[in-house]
């Protein structure tokens, strides 16, 4: 999981039996501590937590084990980070061509889009409608989201040479 924060998606995946690596910015040691704390509180002391800064090719990024799925929950928050996120995802997908990046985000502005950056980084996306798994209801699990907010889910992968 990239941009793990408190690690809910990664912890849930680990509890369901997935092999998980949690990551957040190496520049935010408090986030890394929160990830470790979440793992310990959920009886997952074996889950690795690493510092990965978007847009930076680091020894940690270079030495990552193969992955099948990259999780990113609400990582598209600040438009200034969009390209760095996609550069990091592109690097991981190039290392793991069959992998996919599963991400969600809240549409905060009509001016913010990753579509042009997906083309630039030769990535394609498949939008996953929230209603396809009954997640488009107000107050789902006690949360006010999506409510009047637009939540997007997409699966991003490498585009083929013909752009598809």
Automatic annotation (TrEMBL):
Keywords: Methyltransferase, S-adenosyl-L-methionine, Transferase. The keyword S-adenosyl-L-methionine applies. One of its GO terms (cellular component) is nucleus. InterPro entries: Methyltransf_16, SAM-dependent_MTases_sf. The keyword S-adenosyl-L-methionine applies. It holds the Pfam family Methyltransf_16. GO terms for biological process: methylation. One of its GO terms (molecular function) is methyltransferase activity. Belongs to the methyltransferase superfamily. METTL23 family. This is Methyltransferase-like protein 23. It comes from Eudyptes sclateri. The lineage of its organism: Eukaryota, Metazoa, Chordata, Craniata, Vertebrata.
């Amino acid at each position: 999981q990239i941009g793990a924060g408190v690690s809910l998606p990664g912890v849930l995946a680990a509890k369901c039996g997935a092999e998980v690596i949690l990551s957040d910015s190496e520049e935010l040691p408090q986030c890394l501590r929160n990830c470790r704390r979440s793992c310990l509180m959920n009886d997952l002391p074996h889950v690795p937590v690493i510092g990965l800064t978007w847009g930076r090719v680091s020894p940690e990024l270079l030495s990552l084990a193969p992955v099948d799925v990259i999780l990113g929950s609400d990582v598209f928050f600040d438009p200034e980070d969009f390209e760095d996120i996609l550069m990091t995802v592109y690097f991981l997908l190039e290392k793991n061509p069959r992998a996919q990046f599963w991400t969600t985000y809240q549409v905060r502005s009509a001016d913010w889009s990753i579509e042009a950056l997906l083309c630039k980084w030769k990535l394609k996306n498949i939008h996953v409608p929230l209603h396809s798994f009954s997640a488009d209801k107000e107050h789902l699990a006690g949360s006010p989201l999506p409510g009047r907010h637009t939540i997007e889910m997409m699966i991003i992968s490498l585009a083929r040479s013909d752009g598809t």
